[in-house]
Known about the structure:
The chain has 617 residues and is of the alpha+beta class. The protein has helices at 2-29, 143-146, 201-204, 329-338, 343-348, 360-376, 381-425, 437-441, 450-455, 459-474, 495-517, 521-552, 557-613, and strands spanning 40-47, 63-69, 86-88, 98-104, 109-115, 124-131, 151-155, 179-182, 187-191, 197-199, 211-219, 225-232, 235-242, 245-250, 253-254, 267-274, 277-282, 285-291, 301-303, 315-323, 349-351, 355-356, 477-482, 485-490.
Amino acid sequence: MNRTLQTLLLSGLLLGSLNLNAAEHDQEAKAPWWDAKWPSRKPIVVDTAAVSQSVSAEVRSGLLLIRLHEGNFNFLASREDGSDLRFLGEDGKTLLPHHIEKWDGLLNEAFVWVKAPDLKPGAKVTLWMYSGNVTDAADAADAEASVDSATTALFHFADAAKLSRNSINDGANLEGTASSGPGIVGSGLRLTGSAALTLPATQGGPWNGALTLSFWFKPTAGSEGSILERKSGNQGLAVGLSSSGPWVEANGSRSSPTAPLTPAVWHHFATVIAEGKVQLFVDGKSAGAINATMGEVQAPLTLGSAVAGRPGVLGEFDELKIATVARGESWVAFEAIAHGSSAEAGKLITLGAEELSDHAEESELAKHLTLLVDISKDLTFDGWVVIVLCALLAVVGMVIAVGKFLYLNAMDKSSKEFLRRWESISSDLTALDSDSDASIQSMGGTLTGKSLRLMKQSPLYRIYHLGSSEIAKRVQASTAEKGAEIATTKRGLSGRSIQAIKATMHGGLMREVERLNSNLVFLTIGIAGGPYLGLLGTVIGVMITFAVIAKSGQVEVNSIAPGIAGALLATVAGLAVAIPCLFVYSYLSTRIKTAVSSMETFIDEFIAKMAEHHKES
């Protein structure tokens, strides 16, 4: 039984150790944090193994569609336009280009396109999405860099995201009218069959070689006709829909439909031309092919055009992409899945749980410091002069404050020791009757060595020594011979002598007060002068900012805000000097008043006791 328990215990320990090592290995395998300025990140897992039957070859130059909503992204912690988003490769270092088609912080919805790395079949890749830098993150979205050089046109049909490639951008070069409608991603076009949208031939470029053309289309029930075509006579290309299914036509030859499409459902169309063959793919699967060679076509490209008096096809259209290269079947299948909203899309691309930086508190402080550094870049020379002067006032005030703190602490310690010894000898002042200065300094022989050095730091002791010396001068002993005896007598203190001694001690008190208050004027200069210096720098900075705006003629927030922020930094510097100086001055003044009150009380007590001890005979 015991052996069995031991075996189970050892097995448990071994399994726990293996789990711990596995956890540590996973932690080490995780990409290091890219930048502490970005406090939040999410893993994006692209798993081609989940759709291995569709993606059977390497996919290059693909686009990932990241759909963000309030269920998987915290819009409140991001910038209002999403410009703080950054996407990094599996190594946690390589930035992946991206652009935003739509960002709606009110409805908490966004569509972001990211250039995917090369994806191998049956493999899993973890990418990283960073967000949360709301202070100094510049907009890094780059539609041009998001696609490869072979892509000549990409139309999202949304105002928020535009790709310009060879003068082709998001609908700006399309002629004609079409109503806007919901798209597979954000907004799209609604083809009504009565009017066509045209892309001029000068914008589309010639099609005389390899080509890949893809788009999304949601047909209306019973609708037939050409969805997209670029033809000059019988020469050219067309993609359309019949009751039997979708077809592709090249140079007058049309493919046979394979199966009818489900109406009112989004479908992905792709046409690939390569090596004398034109292939049509629908939803990532082959839907027809013809043998044809595409000659040079200089006709415009039309969407939803009417042919031979027949109305054009009816439905909704979105995400038109044209590339002068023949994409592979895996590329077509990948985009059909990745850009759709099917269950397979959720398997192919998944967003993990949000991770927070381990240095979240430091990054918050770093954000403020970085923001101040950025503001200082817009500070004028006059503002820098003011800040330097404020810094000098701050340094001088700090040095004086530290010196006063140390002096008052040492004074308090020595004064407490003096009062303790004074209390012990004040009941019997005969110990101070000696005329020698040494006896007065040692308080009747009670102070020696270290204690005497400590006592000399007390202003009470210095005042005591001053008063005792004055008394010793006035009560010096006189001798007279009476027969064989010599009589020694001491004179008492008269009223005038007491007043003179008291005046002398008050003079010492004034000197101690002057020592305590010395250099405090620099603190008052910091209190009064710091804000005025800062205000001067701010006024000059604002004046210069408006003068520059007047000359340039650019009246907008981006041209005014940096200069105003830099000018206000001078006021901040002035207040940063004045506020600490005010607190320190108030504290020191209170302690000095307490010390002065203690010295005045001691003088009155000393005079009263000495006058009683040295009565005038």
